[in-house]
Amino acid sequence: MSGERYSVFSLLRETLRGHSGWKPAWRKAVPQKTYDIVIVGGGGHGLATAYYLARRYGLTRIAVVEKGWIGGGNVGRNTTIVRSNYLLSGNIPFYEQSMKLWEGLEQDLNYNAMVSQRGVLNLLHNDAQRNAAIRRGNAMRLNGVDAELLDREAVRARLPFLDFGNARFPIQGGLLQRRGGTVRHDAVAWGYARAADRLGVDIIENCEVTGIRVHDGRVLGLETTRGFVGARKVGLACAGNSSRVAAMAGLRLPIESHVLQAFVSEGLKPFIDCVVTFGAGHFYVSQSDKGGLVFGGDIDGYNSYAQRGNLPVVEDVLESGIALMPRIGRVRLLRQWGGIMDMSMDGSPIIDRTSVAGLYLNAGWCYGGFKATPASGLCFAHLLARDEPHEVARAYRLDRFGMGAVIDEKGMGAQPNLH
Ligand SMILES: Cc1cc2nc3c(=O)[nH]c(=O)nc-3n(C[C@H](O)[C@H](O)[C@H](O)COP(=O)(O)OP(=O)(O)OC[C@H]3O[C@@H](n4cnc5c(N)ncnc54)[C@H](O)[C@@H]3O)c2cc1C
């Protein structure tokens, strides 16, 4: 590894000299003629892939090409929630692997990603939801994942300000995963970028892929706004734009692009000590270290590549929030933004080879892909390095839709906007 190591000593040293000696966290790499592996997309998944390729698989001639800047995509736009409370056997081992990687990530990357295992509590409002939560909790525990069913009084003891007295859908309890929580999203992008750069990965920003050069069914490299970049293997990790980029190689993906919005309120004194999700509407909230409520709800519900959303969804999300916590009715909203989601046909991701030799796909993360970042990077790196799926990502095949082997966690069928 090259570059400085962050520590309490480097912090003290820089404090004493007015923070004048910090170096840029990663180099401004310029594209080389050719690489062993080029990853398209400098989001969390692309950067994590490059890092694990170098760190775990010992590969060095690797580049990440990003059309904008590191952290400008969904990795820097999400509501920062991480959890592994899944139901289906295709998903549980993968997301639990991710949770374990989050737990050691800061030491691994030598970067403070503000991993906060403050707990994720899914509220229940009727008997059917309680049955579903019991089933999910049992599936989690059978797979070694922590899960606790809380009754109404246990929820009230922890979150007394929720509407218990006069709610249209009274709270009956909740399913808690204590190891779930939040992670500072930009720090994840910066931490992986810095760690990958230290291992020799070229991170090339402001470099948009405009074409994929294929000859005789094999990938040769990428046409970019900074010239042609040759590659033995290309990995696509361009969440939200996967269909458009894959189409450059003649592929049509089982994915639609949709907008999801996020919101941050003004700073408030600490009062929510975990992540809470509302079961009677689609609303999830946590409180940032600065005191702002960070929350979101449903996707906008129509196909779009715009990184901004529309007012009817703002209204819907705020209604849900106030129904759950009437006391926030006078809180001011500070910021709101949108990101583009790769919504797959069954709500689960794809990490697989494609029909073009040397072209690999990491896509379909819907609006839960941030929590998957470490495992997605590790499994995609494994696939790229070894040409075989990682054991926890075997189910994420591209051909599963044709085979009827879908992983439909929500039981919604082939309707991407409902997953
Ligand atoms: C508002 C919102 C809230 C969310 N909340 C959560 C949450 O709480 N928990 C959770 O687990 N997930 C959440 N998600 C989902 C999560 O953020 C995404 O699934 C995940 O970040 C996608 O992977 P990524 O980080 O690699 O994507 P991105 O950061 O979007 O990376 C993809 C990159 O590809 C680049 N790219 C695209 N086309 C090209 C091209 N032609 N050439 C070069 N580069 C290209 C883009 O510029 C982008 O930087 C949320 C998403 C949004 C938008």
UniProtKB/TrEMBL annotation:
Catalyses which reaction(s): sarcosine + O2 + H2O = formaldehyde + glycine + H2O2; sarcosine + (6S)-5,6,7,8-tetrahydrofolate + O2 = (6R)-5,10-methylene-5,6,7,8-tetrahydrofolate + glycine + H2O2
Segments forming domain Rhodanese: 37-81
SUPFAM superfamilies tied to this protein: FAD-linked reductases, C-terminal domain, FAD/NAD(P)-binding domain
GO annotation terms (biological process): tetrahydrofolate metabolic process
InterPro entries: FAD-dep_OxRdtase (IPR006076), FAD/NAD-bd_sf (IPR036188), Rhodanese-like_dom (IPR001763), SoxB (IPR006278)
Keywords attached to this entry: Cytoplasm, FAD, Flavoprotein, FMN, Nucleotide-binding, Oxidoreductase
Family: Belongs to the SoxB family.
UniProt protein name: Sarcosine oxidase subunit beta
Lineage of the species this protein comes from: Bacteria, Pseudomonadati, Pseudomonadota, Alphaproteobacteria, Acetobacterales
Gene of this entry: soxB_2
